[in-house]
């Protein structure tokens, strides 16, 4: 289990990925009298409440539909709300980008999470005070910078190589070079030397796709066969050029072969055919997918919150109750819900599901441990007042640029509204049984698993004020759930002794069912909310969500489900002339 201090420290952990952002605009306002606007885009990122310029694009002359060549690179953290703002200005030559209202062509705010979840985001541009910038839109396309998308196993042999030795046969070895964009060559792999053999079979070897071809199948590769010399003066036998795309024809029963050519012999010898043949006997691709591979392939993170309505929380009408609704200060349930939900809402295109347990509910006021807090047994997703779009509020602050505030989206807002409206209608009771809710979400996750696609992963956030009563059933339910596409986050609210809850968090050991069966994956994260009372509002989310990307990859890797193939983006055709 992590502490608040460890939650704060998550920001300093290794970046999950880097993301490239490409920007284009359409129908920009024309600010120039004689020519069209000369647009430039500024990228700003929020840090400790302040907007800081990260980078800016080139200026494209006289173009209202620019496609910028500049690629913005940002670090990506799943467990943070990373707020971005794109501001478009009309540039004035050597004067650069102005800070005047007349130069401002519009702005748009979003999060890194929204962009990677949708892969392509198009939004209207707004002037200050929430006014539309005409029909202007901005489109941001994201792409993960793939540091390692797996590795490939290759098996080569050669036939009838030229004999370079006088008293014995050649001692051949093979080198593979990647040809980079600047035409330089990078050695990828060198095989062992096979002594005294003109038809050698080299040992199979593995190389990463990043090393072999920079994860670009069409990148050219140069393969060279040498006759080994112990003094280092190896004799050149021949070479051939290929690509990883061509190599892949060797998968299965197929083989691919190339003529090993010596350019000098080709010029000098009239009947020269080759200096031997190199054969790719086998090729096996071992993909290693990242969290972003799944998200950008269309996998959604579906969020369900489960709220403890047992009597130990206290009467909601009493200000000492953990469920007391203070109009000026959200209670701990709401704080935890919003902190985690604000991250997840960027990855879930559906409304959030919200369940309650431990209360007597209408109409018969029988105790329920898995009721929908909107009281709709057929649909537990909560409706909320969506506040995106026109409600962006722009305001000019000190310094260049415009400032806007990010409202809460319909996903988390719907849960907040349902929670507040259900409190007067229920009777807090008990006991604290969470196994029914875990099993309920697990049934939905099991249906998803049967599709055999990486399309939905489920996060269950359980907010409770005490140690669970049905510990044996809960352990059994968690072990079953560890085989499904789901993770469980438990936040302890209030001042109860949560020592016994640590058993559910597998950080200190392997959680087992009452019968001794271990979990397949560690899917539970438990933290007491009180450890975050004095921490920043985002510390709780950083702490409890930091493990989720690893859990998602672990599950789909175990099931051998590759990311789904996203729909290809339609490129914009209006390229400008950057200056």
From TrEMBL:
Family of this protein: Belongs to the copine family.
SUPFAM superfamilies: C2 domain (Calcium/lipid-binding domain, CaLB), vWA-like
Limits of the C2 domain: 1-125, 132-259
A molecular function GO annotation: calcium-dependent phospholipid binding
Biological processes, Gene Ontology terms: cellular response to calcium ion
Keywords: Repeat
Lineage: Eukaryota, Metazoa, Chordata, Craniata, Vertebrata
Protein name, entry field: CPNE7 protein
A single Gene Ontology CC term: plasma membrane
Organism annotation: Nothoprocta pentlandii
Gene expressing this chain: Cpne7
């Amino acid at each position: 289990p992590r502490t608040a201090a460890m939650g704060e420290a998550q920001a300093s952990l290794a970046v999950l990925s880097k993301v490239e952002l490409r920007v284009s605009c359409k129908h920009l306002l024309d600010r120039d009298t004689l020519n069209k606007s000369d647009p430039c885009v500024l990228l700003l990122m929020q840090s400790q409440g302040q907007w800081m310029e990260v980078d800016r694009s080139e200026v494209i002359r006289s173009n209202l539909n620019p496609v910028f060549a500049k690629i913005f690179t940002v670090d990506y953290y799943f467990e943070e709300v990373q707020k971005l703002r794109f501001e478009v200005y009309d540039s004035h030559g050597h004067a650069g980008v102005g800070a005047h209202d007349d130069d401002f062509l519009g702005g748009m705010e979003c999060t890194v999470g929204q962009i990677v979840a949708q892969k392509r985001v198009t939004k209207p541009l707004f002037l200050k005070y929430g006014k539309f910038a005409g029909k202007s839109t901005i489109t941001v396309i994201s792409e993960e910078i793939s540091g390692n998308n797996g590795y490939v196993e290759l098996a080569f042999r050669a036939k009838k190589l030229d004999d370079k030795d006088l008293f014995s046969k050649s001692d051949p070895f093979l080198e593979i070079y990647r040809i980079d964009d600047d035409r330089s060559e990078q050695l990828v792999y060198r095989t062992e030397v096979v002594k005294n053999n003109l038809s050698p079979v080299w040992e199979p070897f593995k190389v990463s796709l990043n090393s072999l071809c920079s994860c670009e199948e069409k990148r050219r590769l140069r393969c060279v066969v040498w006759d080994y010399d112990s003094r280092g003066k190896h004799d050149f036998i021949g070479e051939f050029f290929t690509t990883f795309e061509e190599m892949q024809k060797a998968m299965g029963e197929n083989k691919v072969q190339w003529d090993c050519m010596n350019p000098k012999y080709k010029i000098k010898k009239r009947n020269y055919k080759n200096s031997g043949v190199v054969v790719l006997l086998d090729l096996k691709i071992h993909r290693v997918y990242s969290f972003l591979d799944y998200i950008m392939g269309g996998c959604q993170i579906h969020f369900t919150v489960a709220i403890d309505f047992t009597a130990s929380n206290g009467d909601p009408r009493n200000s000492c109750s953990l469920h007391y609704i203070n109009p000026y200060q959200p209670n701990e349930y709401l704080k935890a819900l919003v902190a985690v939900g604000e991250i997840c809402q960027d990855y879930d295109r559906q409304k959030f599901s919200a369940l309650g347990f431990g209360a007597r509910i209408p109409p018969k006021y029988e105790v329920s441990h898995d009721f929908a807090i909107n009281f709709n047994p057929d649909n537990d997703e909560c409706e909320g007042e969506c506040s995106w779009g026109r409600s962006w509020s722009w305001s000019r602050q000190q310094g260049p640029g415009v400032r806007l505030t990010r409202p809460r989206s319909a996903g988390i807002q719907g849960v907040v509204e349902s929670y507040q409206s259900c409190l007067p209608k229920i009777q807090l009771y008990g006991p604290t049984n969470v196994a029914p809710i875990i099993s309920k979400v697990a049934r939905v996750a099991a249906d998803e698993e049967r599709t055999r696609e990486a399309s939905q992963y489920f996060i269950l956030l359980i907010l409770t004020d005490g140690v669970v009563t049905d510990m044996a059933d809960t352990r059994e339910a968690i072990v079953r759930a560890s085989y499904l596409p789901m993770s469980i986050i438990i936040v302890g609210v209030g001042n109860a002794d949560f020592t016994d809850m640590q058993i559910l968090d597998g950080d200190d050991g392997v959680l087992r069912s009452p019968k001794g069966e271990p979990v397949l994956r560690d899917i539970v994260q438990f933290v007491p909310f009180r450890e975050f009372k004095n921490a920043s509002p985002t510390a709780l989310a950083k702490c409890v969500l930091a493990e989720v990307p690893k859990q998602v990859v672990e599950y789909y890797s175990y099931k051998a489900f590759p990311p789904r193939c996203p729909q290809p983006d339609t490129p914009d055709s209006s390229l400008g002339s950057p200056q």
